[in-house]
Amino acid sequence: MKAIIIGGGQVGSYVAKLLIQNGYDVSIIENREKPLEKIKNDFPEKMLVRGTGSDPDTLERAGIVSADVVVAVTGEDQVNLVVATIAKYEYGIKRVIARVNNPRNTWLFNQSMGVDVAVNQADLVSRIVMDEIDMKSLSTLLKINKGKNSIIQMGIQEGSAAANKQIKDLQLPDETILITLIREDDVIVLNGSVELKANDTVLALTNEKGQFALNALFSK
Length: 220
Fold this sequence. Notes:
By secondary structure, this protein is of the alpha/beta class. It has helices spanning 10-21, 33-39, 56-61, 77-89, 121-130, 208-218, and strands spanning 2-6, 25-30, 48-50, 69-72, 95-100, 117-120, 139-144, 149-155, 177-183, 186-189, 201-207. The longest helix is centred in the middle third of the chain and has 13 residues, at 77-89.
């Protein structure tokens, strides 16, 4: 199976690793210098294609003619939509997945624009809040990758190793991404300088081994 990922940031590189582990032939398209330098250490150079994912020439260099799935996960909704439309209608890709960065743009990410699956982080968070899910315990929200990986929510307990620590100072398990943080009624976008506090709830993408490690990190 051939997959093309547009966007070599944290999300794109993580998806690429998962697909490679499952036997996919993966190409990653990226045009920014810093992400390119970083992912050069994680992937063979033959997998990396320098260029813009909305450029047909770049897509063809990445092998879109023989691709089975295209995943557009850049930080720009406009780029992700253009990629989806080109992939679906110019190249007939059967499975097109696109990331929604701005919730206001969600209505655009539909099948008429070539999007088979729209991934909207804000929508996921809002559903959790509205359903009044218990934020004090670990819950599995969604299993992916044939059950090998999950999106989980986990409360941070007072006295745990993670409480009052900045994310950059935590030793996170491999193949784990912290997606977002919920603190009382606020949803906080995560970066390395965000300090975790007791009673916060974190949404994370991880595997089974990572769940045990996060539990040890977030529990007293």
